[in-house]
Design a protein that fits this description.
Structural class: alpha/beta
Oligomer: single chain
Shape: elongated
Helix content: 40-55%
């Protein structure tokens, strides 16, 4: 019991120990508590009321560990039903649009784009890249309705999540609302990113996302050559691979810090989608506060499906040729 009480009170823990348990450091937890105060503050002050800080810690513990809620209940000294209720409250509060839009922002000004493109260029001299995009699967328990559509190519139930990262491993866009059977290319075409880029809503000039061969090649979304010729095409592919590696690193960090994304999540799909977005918000909050990664995780994403190759529209392929021949 003494150990459990100590686990419930991070006052005696080092910052490293707090990060390993809750994903955030002490100051980060207090910051998040204030951020969510309006939504989570208990309406009454009864003797056994779960405090605002306890609610945040309970949810963070679940997000970071992915442990079953009974273990969380044991550690924090409350019932499993209370843990479940608290986690739902925090997910609802943290996924509210004004909070998501505060922490996950797509660059839209010339200055923002140029800053990101300059940083990406330092990786492998690939010009005008402001983001890297990929999909990642988050495993869920098979839902009671439409169960089959959630089965992905690796034969388990999941939410296929589209993520775009900047050169600093920050998420600049996340789409978590599609069943595991839906391919990356469709998710992209139905996303706000597609609408922004195809609608010409960014400042004039060449601004690129880099994606793998699971995506169509577009004027603004460049994919690698499948059979590159020696010279500019192989140099293009090399720079593309080195630059796009940022998205693999970013997904590894996201899933590494928030271990719940590595486990089978036993919630309905709608709530899982909100949970994924919450983890994206927390990921960026950690970046903004320079909270280090836990020391005991691996920065790998083990849930990537095999790539389905898209040839892309002809104008996209021609534009890729233009970039390769001009810059490489």
């Amino acid at each position: 019991m003494q150990l459990l009480r100590k686990m419930a009170d991070f006052g005696d823990l080092t910052n490293e120990e707090v990060i390993s348990r809750y994903g955030l450091d002490k100051d980060g937890i207090l910051f998040l508590t204030e951020l969510l105060r309006e939504d989570l503050q208990p309406k009454t002050e009864r003797k056994n009321t779960i405090t605002l800080l306890q609610k945040v810690k309970i949810a963070l513990r679940y997000f970071a560990s992915g442990e079953i809620q009974l273990n969380d209940a044991d550690i924090h000294g409350i019932s499993q039903s209370s843990v479940s209720r608290v986690i739902s409250q925090v997910i609802h509060a943290l996924s509210r649009p004004h909070i998501v839009q505060t922490y996950i922002k797509f660059p839209k000004t010339q200055q923002e784009l140029q800053d990101l493109e300059r940083q990406f260029y330092g990786t492998a001299s690939f010009p005008n890249v402001f983001g890297v995009i990929d999909g990642t699967h988050v495993q869920i328990q098979g839902p009671t309705q439409n169960k089959g559509v959630y089965v992905n190519r690796m034969n388990y139930h999941s939410i296929n999540t589209q993520v775009v990262f900047d050169p600093n491993d920050r998420i600049i866009d996340i789409v978590a609302r599609w069943p595991g059977s839906v391919p990356d290319s469709r998710i992209l075409r139905e996303s706000g990113v597609w609408a922004l880029m195809e609608g010409g809503h960014l400042p004039p000039g060449d601004h690129y996302l880099l994606g793998d061969s699971g995506y169509p090649c577009e004027r603004w979304l460049l994919t690698p050559y499948l059979n590159p010729q020696q010279g500019s095409q192989t140099q293009y592919n090399s720079a593309h691979k080195s630059t796009r590696a940022k998205v693999e690193r970013g997904i590894g960090q996201l899933k590494g810090r928030w271990g719940v994304l590595h486990s089978e999540i036993k919630m309905n799909p709608e709530k899982v989608c909100k949970l994924i977005v919450c983890c994206g918000v927390l990921h960026n909050l950690c970046k903004s506060r320079n909270i280090p990664m836990p020391l005991d995780i691996l920065h790998n994403d083990h849930n990537q499906p095999p790539t389905i190759v898209h040839s892309g529209p002809q104008d996209g392929l021609k534009y890729r040729d233009y970039v390769a021949e001009t810059y490489f």
